[in-house]
Specification:
It contains 13 helices and 21 strands. Helix 2 packs antiparallel against helix 3, helix 7 packs parallel to helix 9 and helix 9 runs parallel beside helix 11. It is about 35% helix and about 20% strand. About 45% of the residues are buried. The chain is elongated, with a radius of gyration of 25 Å. An eight-stranded antiparallel β-sheet has the order 5-6-7-8-9-12-17-16, with no helix packed on it. By secondary structure, it is an alpha+beta fold.
Length: about 550
């Protein structure tokens, strides 16, 4: 097991496990013996955390440990019993995903085993001595079915989150079942995966459910790796540590007090417009309060790999602003399909996104935003605009269209929209709660210690909601400028409040051009002139240095 955790990190892990345990113990047990009939994994995650908290003598629990263990054992047993144990079945070794009204009749799905099997192996190994014999035997049988199903025995092609978990399972099952050939294949896949991300990065940039699946899978593999001292064992552990270090260094680049700044390959409803998948960050960095709501528990209270010191410094010390430029290759794609992502990171906010539009998974590419740290008020922590595209639903501000051009320069984002007659004729904006003041076609606010200014080409309607401000701009041609500035920087410029901020910009608003070609001309508060034209070719970073903030892509 990992032994280099500092006491405060141990306390944070215990806090996550305790919070999950308290919730789990208060859940009504259904006639099926489960708590949840949605995603089967929630039953497994919460039962695991409940058992772990009850088995931890240092965990302060408001209920009887024996009752808690018994409840966890019952739910874990029901989860294991839902596995398809028929070797002749097409989805042998798999579990259902959505359980529906009758879990015993739910159809198997390939996804749960892909993620849960490695976690089950880890849980069974970690708590072997504490588990009742019947449950130990059930884990052994379930893992044997999963191993014999060979669902994970696939070649590397896309280097995506599925293949990351397959690679980890090859290592875990190869060792657990003394399958030398499978273990060797897993080690080869591990080396290729490590080389790939070091050279090409992750095609699934900022995909928060999937990124954490990488972290889970390879942390499990490291915890269960051999330590016999042989050369191959040592190389395997070194490669696993190398991959986990790479993942945490990547995470640190975009980290801002629990938030994941800038572009996402995909984003679930709890990722936008507020960061909610934060438990691994809390365990690792701990520089923000643990939220009361845990929309993605995963295994964050039970798994931990200490990030390298370099990653911790990057994530936690933002005294010097940094510009992060990334060239992102597509799955199996060449350089001609690469995306270019730019993020300006400061101690108070981040701004940026991805220059190119790509039709990502479920049309969930989140292209740009200004990100604030998680806000104690419960407000959303991201500011952005978009044109609703395929998959959009009212009240769920994701799923943008491709009718957008963007420019990023440090603390400024500019965007243009030219919407066809056949599509929704409006753009939608999401802003964090604060004292927003409208002045003409502009909005200004001080949110915590960050000033935000939004300029719009068209008239708009501003609507306050419980956790956000929503902006709706009717029309088919739009321009948007969003500029962020810390109160500290504003004070150095002689701006001592919101009224002074507004007064100082009345003389230099952006110029929106609505002629044959849409355009925005703007001079930033620092005096940098920027221009964005709809017909500019922004597919390459050389087209206009200001579009990417200048500098080299890596």
């Amino acid at each position: 097991m990992t032994t280099n955790m500092l006491p405060d990190r141990e306390a944070r892990l215990r806090e996550i496990a305790r919070g999950a345990a308290v919730r789990a113990f208060g859940l009504p047990e259904r006639p099926s013996g489960l708590w949840f009939h949605g995603d089967i994994r929630d039953n497994f995650y919460y039962a695991s955390h409940l058992f772990a908290a009850a088995a931890d003598p240092d965990s302060d629990l408001p209920f009887d440990r024996g009752e808690a263990k018994a409840a966890a054992v019952r739910v874990l047993g029901e989860v294991l019993a839902l596995q398809n144990a028929d070797p002749a079945a097409e989805l042998y070794g798999h579990w259902p995903l959505g359980l529906g009204p009758s879990p015993r009749e739910a159809r198997p799905n390939p996804l749960p085993a892909e993620l849960m099997a490695g976690l089950m192996a880890y849980f069974a190994a970690r708590y072997d001595a504490a588990l009742p014999e019947a449950l130990r035997a059930a884990f052994r049988e379930a893992l044997a079915h999963a191993y014999r199903s060979r669902f994970y025995d696939k070649p590397l092609r896309a280097f995506n989150h599925h293949e990351a978990k397959y690679t980890a399972l090859k290592l875990i099952f190869g060792r657990r079942f003394a399958d030398a050939s499978l273990l060797a294949d897993g080690r080869r896949s591990l080396k290729r995966t490590l080389a790939h991300v070091r050279e090409r990065g992750m095609a699934e940039y900022g995909a928060l459910p999937w990124f954490w699946h990488w972290v889970q899978a390879f942390t499990c593999a490291l915890e269960l790796a051999g330590d016999g001292g042989g050369r191959e064992d040592e190389e395997e552990r070194a490669d696993l540590r190398g991959l986990l270090d790479w993942l945490w260094n990547e995470r640190a680049l975009y980290y801002l007090k629990g938030a994941w700044a800038a572009p996402h390959f995909r984003a679930l409803a709890h990722d936008l417009p507020k960061d909610g998948n934060v438990l691994f960050d809390y365990a690792q960095f701990g520089d923000f309060p643990l939220p009361a709501d845990l929309p993605r528990l995963e295994y964050a209270g039970l798994l931990f790999y200490e990030a390298p010191e370099e990653a911790r410094r990057t994530a936690l010390d933002r005294r010097k602003p940094a510009e992060v430029r990334k060239r992102i290759a597509s799955e199996g794609g060449g350089e001609e399909t690469a995306l270019h992502a730019y993020t300006y990171m400061t101690a108070r906010f981040a701004a940026g996104g991805v220059l190119e539009r790509r039709e990502e998974f479920d049309n969930e590419q989140h292209r740009w935003d200004v990100t604030l740290p998680l806000l104690a008020s419960g407000s959303v922590n991201k500011a952005y605009f978009f044109h609703p595209g395929r998959g959009y639903a009212e009240g769920d501000p994701r799923h943008r269209s491709g009718h957008e051009q963007v420019l990023f320069h440090k603390n400024v984002v500019m965007a243009l929209y030219d919407i066809p007659e056949t599509e929704d004729g409006r753009i939608v904006g999401v802003l964090p709660k604060g004292e927003w003041i409208a002045a003409g076609n502009a909005l200004h606010a001080l949110v915590n210690d960050v000033y935000l200014t939004v300029y719009l080409m068209q008239p708009f309607a501003l609507r306050e909601e419980p956790d956000r401000m929503t902006v709706v701009c009717p029309g088919r041609r739009h321009g948007v400028v969003v500029e962020a500035m810390s109160a500290e920087d504003a004070d150095c410029m002689g701006i001592d409040g919101l009224e002074a901020l507004i007064a100082g910009r009345k003389q230099r608003p952006p110029v929106f051009g609505d002629g044959e070609a849409l355009r925005i001309d703007y001079v930033t508060r620092q005096g940098q002139p920027l221009r964005l034209r709809w017909d500019d070719a922004y597919g390459t970073p050389a087209s206009e240095p200001a579009n990417s903030g200048g500098g080299a892509w890596r």
